[in-house]
Amino acid sequence: QVQLQESGPGLVKPSETLSLTCAVSGYSISSGYYWGWIRQPPGKGLEWIGSIYHSGSTYYNPSLKSRVTISVDTSKNQFSLKLSSVTAADTAVYYCARDPRPYFDYWGQGTLVTVSS
Amino acid sequence: SYELTQPPSVSVSPGQTARITCSGDALPKQYAYWYQQKPGQAPVLVIYKDSERPSGIPERFSGSSSGTTVTLTISGVQAEDEADYYCQSADSSATYLFGGGTKLTVL
To answer: What is the DSSP string of B34-62?
Structure first.
């Protein structure tokens, strides 16, 4: 069974960089599929952030592309998200998920990141 | 820009049929996907490629497509089906889009 687990700071200061990692178990990232990040502000809907292949090929949401970097570490079977210059609008639950393109079949439980000084 | 439009809310009584629609100009050319999200939980995929059901999803969940509208149908709604439902698709540049979500209330 594929399992994903997000980790990272729950509080980030405005203008700083949000960094999260998603650890994958039950499946080797190197075996295929894209792997993605999705976020959900409190009480609001879902927003795709971007996805990455094990080779490092990435696709980003154009609305966030200038601030997003997604990377993969196949040796640790994990992938990561960096979102720069954060504001209160970036406060959200961040999910990682497996991406068979163009949808998500396995999701992590999500982690709340609050942007506040 | 391309959008997916869902009704904010749908209400049905137990045992009835719930239909949740999702409209978007690219839907005739792109598949739609549906997720169920219960409070405090991650979304769960309930329909993929317009009408396919993942293993483990009850048969009462079905999907259909007609022109620019796709529909998630839940037959014989149960109390446990009360949740938010999101449609999702992609545009021609492979940007993934989600609908705004529909809150299903089981009366």
So the answer is: EEEE-TTS--EEEEBTTTB--TTS-TTEE
